[in-house]
Amino acid sequence: MEENFSIRLQKAMNIRNIKAVELSEKTGISKSSLSEYIKGKYEAKQKGIFKLAYALNVSEGWLMGLDVPMEREIKQDNNVFPTVDVPQKYPVLGKISAGLPILAIENIEGYMYAPSSKIQSGYDYFFLRVIGDSMNLKFPNGCLLLVQKQPELENGQIGVIMVNGDDATVKRYKVENDLVILEPMSSNPEHQVQIYNPKKTKVEIIGKVICAITDVN
Fold it and tell me: Which residues are catalytic?
């Protein structure tokens, strides 16, 4: 019998002993959508396949019904020790405000999983939800950004920055002639380049954007 996405999803859930409620929490996919996937009414889109495969620790191709091994590909670290790319759980922040620790309960709206290939030891990570269109040429409104917490950025890197204690913003960062330049990447002309003298205006780098998850429904 040929196995499709629905059958493979049910099989993976049984093998990993994961219920729909737990899988929904791990992936951020709604329970109603999962129910339709399990019943075979709909198939998940590419991002959904990615999140389900990571949460279930199976190959994306196998989950889609292809004739490939179920287990995820094993990667070699320095050709010595094999490691499996498994998801890591991090908090999702709706915003970062002055006066509160970054990971204060008031800021956390949920949790999301990131692949370990994006994670470096020695750093803290969190997801930040994009609000608005100031970076819509790069990141659509509502998507999640995986942020590596760090106090410095190189010229041209995209980071999360707080200016004068206001809510943190996501911008492309540059320093020229001792001035900090924050560049929007937007189709909306209302968003202009911001230039600050750090001797007069407090500019705090919160972290570097590592990657974006655009399909978070």
Answer: 134, 171
